[in-house]
Design a protein that fits this description.
The complex is a heterodimer.
Chain A: H1 2-29, H2 34-39, H3 45-55, H4 61-73, H5 87-122, H6 127-141, H7 144-158, H8 174-208, H9 211-218, H10 223-260, H11 266-276, H12 279-307, H13 309-312
Helix pairs in contact in A: 1-12, 5-6, 5-8, 5-10, 6-8, 7-8, 7-10, 8-10, 9-10, 10-11, 10-12, 11-12
Chain B: H1 8-20, E1 63-69, H2 84-89, E2 98-100, E3 107-109, E4 112-117, E5 123-128, H3 142-153, E6 168-175, E7 178-183, H4 188-194, E8 220-226, E9 230-235, E10 248-254, H5 257-265, E11 271-272, E12 290-304, H6 315-324, H7 327-334, H8 364-373, E13 380-386, H9 389-404, E14 408-414, H10 418-426, E15 432-437, H11 443-447, H12 459-470, H13 473-489, E16 493-505, E17 509-510, E18 527-528
Parallel strand pairs in B: 1-10, 1-11, 13-14
Antiparallel strand pairs in B: 2-3, 4-5, 5-7, 6-7, 8-9, 9-10, 11-16, 12-15, 12-16, 17-18
The chains are: A mainly alpha, B alpha+beta.
Chain lengths: 316, 529
């Protein structure tokens, strides 16, 4: 098992390296010169060249890459070209915001999806279960940003219950924070909940068909009781896997939602930096997202090995 | 020729009177009946003397929240281009020696109370206001002024706009309140340039970290920057002029036009500084909000690449393009009818403005005739536009109008600024583009050089611009009118319309500038009445 884990870890490291090369290369072929963007429309070629030199963009790309990698490894990716602000603390700040948003959405999604999914499974032969199932199908199809726009127009603009956007630091104003968090978290959670509920449903359905559950019921337990006592833990395995994968898509979804709700998270930092051609910032933010995604996958894999004894033996 | 003006004390006196009378001082809205009239000699009276010492009573402890698009990339406009930084800092945190009156377009005193111009018009002697301090406590003297102007020509300034002061030969601090600037030749644009960011006054001791720290003499001080959301300014307690009404200004940045509108609709902000989508104004009509509509310096130019070998090198074809576009209907369609038709590179707030919309009236038959005469039916033109709201929505209208006239148009949308700058601006790989030139008095800049992306810059026009800059003020007006006419008649480009200044605000906010013709958005005038 340790060998397998090591193998997974190596795959993880190699993937991170490959991704860093790709991200770096992609940023170099992106049209648009950071120095030109900084100096504006009328800048002379000499001035642009001088600034490129100041930014260190005239050095060989390999040197630039290695320099950046050193920065990543030492957790000090350097300073921005234009704003001269340190990139590391900025990303840390923004990441915090994004993580709050993502984790809240995930929790919301789980809280809603698990009971609904179980309900859909248990009642899958009844009208209410089918209706619920159809609704969740619709939920899957609605993009988060659209949900966000609709929620804003109803709950912020019409009803004035919550703000239409912005961010409040939790320590400064906890209530304001919750109000600001509500709509973006719900928009992100809606789709996730719909997806997750469908997985829960099928996982529970699978479990319901298992022999041990039939046995449990034969011993006199009602279906829900049987499920509660014997089935849920087994149904949880595939659901946890999906949860991990969902977390990665949530991170990406947050990029868009942050834009809709004017939230100063990683997503808005990414988009602003692309516009300003702050190459280092863009590269680093993308790497943070990539590493997070790969890390989640790795952890899910590792968790699998721990949970499922069949995988440990290496017979599969 | 001598220019001598004293308005600041006058303004202070007027403001004090207004306050005593119980009405709102800093108003300065379009409806204000000339209380900001400059050039009156009555200002020399002692009314002005005590304002520097006691700048209170107009102040409240209120906060005003202003919504804007496009957060600055840095606070340093000496090394970073873009309108967002001077919009925020110039005249609010930094000040200039002279400034522009947004109602009259005239140049009026700011940190310089008066100035004299020598007979040969190459030496400017500025008398600086006394007792002015920077927000770090150090005194503003002619030394700082000389340092600031000298610095523009040094390597410290990197943005291209620094060339506006190329004409400066030497700068000298004669004494603490006297600054002498010598030009290499007479230049009408010099004084105007001083009203823009190149004229900003810096503290000799505080220019090390301009990207994150701004220290100036203005009515507000830079307080805090929450990157990604807002910048906070606080009233400068030692401001030498009238204290602004609001204690705190929160400049809130929105990437998304809808989010900005929603913030206004839900009372999360008090002012929308620029409405990005004019059709959305309907949401604000009906009395709950005030809508300000005026002009800007943003000429929306349909540029035509006339370098040899390109289809639009043919003047007939360029004329055809101008005839083929129905400007009124274009503006109605893509910018909700808001804006102004100008027909040339001059906004109505410039002294040399003339209505040139009649040069190429909408005439589809004439356009078709010119196209078929040139044997250019079906010529394919690449319209490469930046990913900006006006360019995207107006681009398709231009496309359909030109296709009606018999040309083929392909639209490419390029990410702005980076991709557009590279493709259109640097590589000149385009046939037509659409972009608003928002810099003030930029006709010579945009059409004065064949190397510029507009690819015009004939010798004739260069001579005109030079004569305009070195001649008397009257000659300047006449020559620039002529230049605008030549550019228009040569169909050097087409001028789609002038971007409007559209603002939305709470109904009781006063002091909003009707016309946005300065680089800065003056916050010192804002008040709640």
């Amino acid at each position: 098992m340790l060998l397998r884990l090591l193998h997974r870890a190596m795959v993880f490291v190699l993937s991170v390296l490959a991704a860093s090369v790709l991200v770096f290369a992609f940023m170099r072929v992106l049209p648009g010169d950071p120095a030109r963007v900084a100096l504006g429309i009328n800048a002379s070629d000499e001035a642009v060249a001088r600034l490129r030199e100041q930014f260190g963009l005239d050095r060989p790309v390999v040197v630039q890459y290695l320099d950046w990698m050193r920065g990543l490894v030492t957790l000090d990716p350097g300073i921005e070209f234009i704003s001269k602000a340190a990139i590391g603390p900025q990303i840390a700040d923004r990441l915090q915001v994004t993580l709050i948003l993502v984790v809240t959405s995930m929790l919301l999604a789980v809280v809603v999806a698990v009971p609904v999914g179980i309900w859909m499974a248990v009642r899958h032969r009844h009208v209410d279960g089918l209706v619920m199932s159809a609704l969740s199908q619709v939920g899957v199809a609605i993009p988060a940003f659209l949900a966000g726009i609709v929620l804003i127009s109803v709950f912020a603009v019409r009803l004035r219950w919550v703000p239409s956007g912005g961010w409040v630091v939790p320590a400064q104003d906890p209530l304001g924070f919750l109000r600001a968090l509500a709509l973006p978290a719900i928009s992100l959670a809606m789709v996730q909940a719909a997806v997750l509920a469908r997985y829960v449903r099928s996982a529970v359905l699978d479990v319901l068909r298992e022999d041990y559950l039939r046995t449990a019921r034969a011993k006199g337990l009602r279906p829900v009781q049987a499920l509660w006592r014997h089935g849920l833990r087994n149904a949880a395995v595939p659901v946890v896997t999906v949860l991990g994968l969902q977390l990665a898509t949530l991170l990406i979804g947050a990029v868009v939602i942050e834009q809709v709700f004017v939230i100063p998270g990683l997503g808005s930092l990414l988009l602003d930096s692309v516009a300003d051609r702050e190459l280092l910032t863009v590269q680093t933010v993308v790497m943070v997202l990539v590493v997070a995604t790969l890390l989640i996958n790795f952890l899910v894999d590792a968790l699998y090995l721990v949970i499922d004894p069949r995988l440990r033996t290496g017979s599969r | 020729m001598t220019t001598s003006r004293k308005t600041r004390p006058l303004l202070a006196a007027l403001a004090a009177t207004a306050l005593l009378a119980g009405c709102n001082a800093g108003a300065g809205t379009s409806t204000d009946d000339g209380s900001q009239e400059p050039g009156d000699s009555a200002g020399a009276e002692d009314g002005g003397e005590d304002t520097a010492a006691a700048p209170e009573p107009g102040g409240s402890d209120e906060t005003v929240r202003v919504g804007l698009v496009a957060e600055p990339a840095s606070l340093d406009f000496t090394t970073t281009d873009g309108a967002a930084i001077p919009q925020l800092l110039l005249d609010n945190v930094y000040e200039t020696l002279v400034t522009v009156d947004v109602e009259t377009g005239e140049i009026v005193p700011a940190l310089a109370t008066e100035w004299e111009v020598s007979e040969d018009r190459t030496t400017y002697t500025f008398t600086l206001e006394d007792g002015v301090t920077f927000s770090d406590g150090s005194e503003f003297t002619a030394e700082d002024a000389a340092f600031s102007l000298d610095r523009v020509s040094s390597d410290a300034w990197t943005i291209s706009l620094k060339s506006q002061l190329d004409v400066v030969e030497s700068v000298e601090a004669v004494d603490d309140t006297t600054l002498e600037v010598t030009l290499s030749r007479p230049s009408n644009s010099f004084l105007y340039a001083l009203t823009t960011r190149v004229g900003a006054m810096f503290d000799t001791e505080a220019v090390d970290n301009l990207a994150e720290q701004a220290i100036g003499t203005g009515p507000y001080t830079f307080e805090n920057w929450d990157r990604g959301s807002q910048i906070t300014l606080e009233r400068n307690p030692d401001y030498h002029g009238d204290a602004p009404y609001f204690q705190t200004v929160e400049m809130r940045y929105f990437d998304d036009a809808n989010a900005l509108n929603n913030a206004m609709l839900t009372d999360a902000i008090d002012v929308v500084s620029t409405v990005q989508a004019p059709e959305s104004l309907a949401e604000f009509e009906g009395g709950d909000f005030q809508i300000v509509e005026g002009t800007t310096n943003g000429e929306v130019v349909l540029s035509m690449n006339q370098q040899e070998g390109n289809p639009l090198a043919d003047p007939d074809l360029r004329e055809a393009v101008r005839y083929a576009i129905d400007h009124q209907s274009l503006m109605d369609t893509c910018w909700a009818g808001r804006g102004e038709l100008i027909g040339s590179m001059v906004p109505p707030t410039d002294p040399w403005y003339e209505d040139r919309t009649g040069d190429y009236p909408f005439d589809p038959e004439e356009a078709q005739r010119l196209i078929s005469e040139a044997g250019a039916e079906g010529t394919e033109l690449r319209l490469r536009i930046p990913s900006l709201p006006y360019a995207v929505s107006c681009g398709t209208v231009v496309e359909s109008m030109l296709e009606d006239a018999g040309l083929q148009v392909t639209i490419d949308e390029l990410e702005f600024p980076a991709a557009w700058l590279e493709t259109v601006f640097t590589n000149k790989d385009f046939d037509m583009s659409i972009v608003a030139h928002v810099e003030p008095r930029d006709m010579a800049n945009v059409f004065g050089s064949p190397d510029y992306y507009t690819t015009y810059g004939t010798e004739e026009i260069q001579t005109l611009f030079e004569e305009a800059d070195t001649g008397t003020e009257e000659e300047q007006v006449a020559k620039l009118q002529e230049a605008a006419a030549v550019i228009s008649e040569d169909a050097a480009a087409d001028f789609l319309f002038l971007l409007p200044n559209l603002m939305v605000a709470d109904p009781d906010i006063t002091g909003l500038p009707t016309n946005a013709i300065k680089e800065s958005f003056d916050l010192g005038d804002l008040a709640r009445g």
